[in-house]
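Appendix B. Chain record.
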Amino acid sequence: MVVKVESLDDLVRATFELTPEALAEAEFEVDDAALVDIYAGLFTNPEFLLGRYSHDQLDAGFAAMINCDNDLAVSELVWNRGVPIEKREHLISSMEHLYERFFRRESFVYSTFMWWDALAYAFECGNAVRGRSDERACGDCGAACEQAAACERCHEDASVMSASLGPVTGL
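Structure tokens predicted for this chain:
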């Protein structure tokens, strides 16, 4: 199955309405730079999801967003050097809103607590190292982590991510 993702509605349908199996098997037609903008829009105003999807659908959808095997994974887009750094910085800073406006209200066993780990995984596999590339995005990661740290449920993971990304410049 080929799924085109050209809008917020397309992304939301694919992420929250497809089963995890269908999502894994789907082939996506998407422009990565446009997808970064779409995600930033979703993260900035995620509240509409609460009335539209069940807790289980939301849990599966947010887990899929940080699953590196998912072609739409936000965790991969953050490190995608084919996307302009300014767009990736905006994506990272939009995550502050996701924590403030969504994860404070709705907690998930996996994605709420593993979000930052999934984003920082590039360090574990050597795709990002300290002192390389553009350092501006790290400040945005730190700010996003600080906002997430204000969310009591997310404090520990956000603190770990912030410490991990300090002066890291693999973006």
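Further analysis of this model is presented in Appendix C.
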